């Protein structure tokens, strides 16, 4: 469905280029949910937005390819890209208030997309809006409400309805449940997963929360400091992570199924300044397993097992590192 290869995205900051995404890639097979996970500033949102080519004015795609349906989105003229938005690729933002206009009734906003982008008549658009509301579990009698009359969960469901309006092939969801409490998070994720299966959608789920990918995604791509550091099917990633950052992320988030119970161990420190990234592995300053080679030479992403890509010099020792990483004191020693 989608194949991102060697993508680099740079922001112009003053007279400098800050490369927020650097030579990174991943694939989204048809009909799957792929999680893009990492902490704030790792480049996941920049990467996701680049897929729809809705990036900040001071950002540019500095290299690479976004192959979608036989076309390279990175090189597509804006008019052609615009024609793909909503119809082929749509976007669910983090806060539904970013996609719903507070001064218009929700029905009007959905119908506007259906009529302007889908060419539907008023009557057909009204019927489709009601159908979409039923699909996402909102009573169609609420279509005439304004966004402020909805709860946070309902607003997010309405944003999902809006994204699905024209039957896109690919939906990019940017932290779609971050602003919601854990019970509503589960309901929305269950709904998204059900719709994804029923409609055969491909979804990219951008999140900082590894428990969200554990609950929802078929494959997971872990990003750190602008680079993909691990990429494989979610079950393997959670049971046998090969990258120390993934091991640390697992300890840092509660399990959605246990509704937030359990002891959490954070990864001490913060990601490097991307205006001046370090030599060697970008995670070395926070990694309890960093060796001399890690500080001098950047590890290249390698497919070490079929479908399991990792960028770590010590990936061959992962079984031992996982044992160490499961102990809180391993991470506390880095604080
Ligand atoms: S390359 Fe070295 S510093 Fe980087 S994650 Fe692997 S062990 Fe840690």
From TrEMBL:
GO CC aspect terms: plasma membrane
GO BP of this protein: peptide transport; transmembrane transport
Keywords: ATP-binding, Cell inner membrane, Cell membrane, Membrane, Nucleotide-binding, Translocase, Transport
Recorded superkingdom: Bacteria
Recorded topology in the membrane: Peripheral membrane protein
Localization: Cell inner membrane
Domain ABC transporter: 2-250
GO molecular function term, any single one: ATP binding
Family named by the database record: Belongs to the ABC transporter superfamily.
The name this protein goes by in its record: Peptide ABC transporter ATPase
Organism: Actibacterium mucosum KCTC 23349
């Amino acid at each position: 469905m989608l194949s991102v290869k060697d993508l680099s995205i740079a922001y112009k900051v003053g007279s400098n280029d800050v490369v927020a995404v650097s030579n990174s890639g991943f694939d989204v097979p048809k009909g799957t949910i792929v999680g893009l996970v990492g902490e704030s500033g790792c480049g996941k949102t920049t990467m996701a937005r680049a897929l729809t080519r809705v990036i900040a004015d001071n950002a540019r795609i500095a290299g690479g390819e976004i192959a979608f349906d036989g076309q390279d989105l990175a090189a597509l003229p804006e008019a052609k890209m615009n024609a793909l938005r909503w119809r082929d690729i749509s976007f669910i933002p983090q806060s539904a208030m970013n996609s719903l206009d507070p001064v218009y009734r929700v029905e009007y906003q959905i119908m506007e997309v259906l009529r302007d982008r889908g060419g539907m008549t008023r009557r057909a658009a009204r019927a489709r809006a009601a159908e979409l509301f039923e699909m996402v579990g909102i009573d169609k009698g609420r279509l005439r409400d304004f966004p402020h009359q909805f709860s946070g969960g309902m607003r997010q469901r309405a944003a999902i309805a809006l994204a699905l309006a024209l039957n896109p092939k690919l939906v990019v969801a940017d932290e779609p449940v971050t602003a919601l409490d854990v019970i509503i998070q589960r309901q929305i994720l269950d709904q998204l997963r059900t719709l994804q299966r029923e409609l055969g959608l491909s979804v990219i789920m951008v999140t900082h929360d590894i428990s969200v990918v554990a609950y929802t995604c078929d494959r997971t791509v872990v990003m750190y400091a602008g680079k993909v550091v691990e990429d494989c099917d979610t079950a393997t990633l959670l049971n046998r992570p090969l990258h120390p950052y993934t091991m640390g992320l697992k300890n840092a988030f509660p399990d959605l199924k246990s509704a937030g119970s359990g002891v959490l161990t954070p990864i001490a420190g913060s990601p490097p300044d991307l205006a001046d990234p370090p030599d060697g592995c970008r995670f070395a300053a926070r990694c309890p397993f960093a060796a001399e080679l890690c500080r001098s030479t950047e590890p290249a992403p390698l497919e070490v097992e079929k479908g399991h890509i990792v960028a770590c010099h010590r990936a061959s020792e992962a079984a031992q590192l996982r044992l160490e990483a499961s102990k809180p004191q391993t991470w506390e020693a880095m604080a």
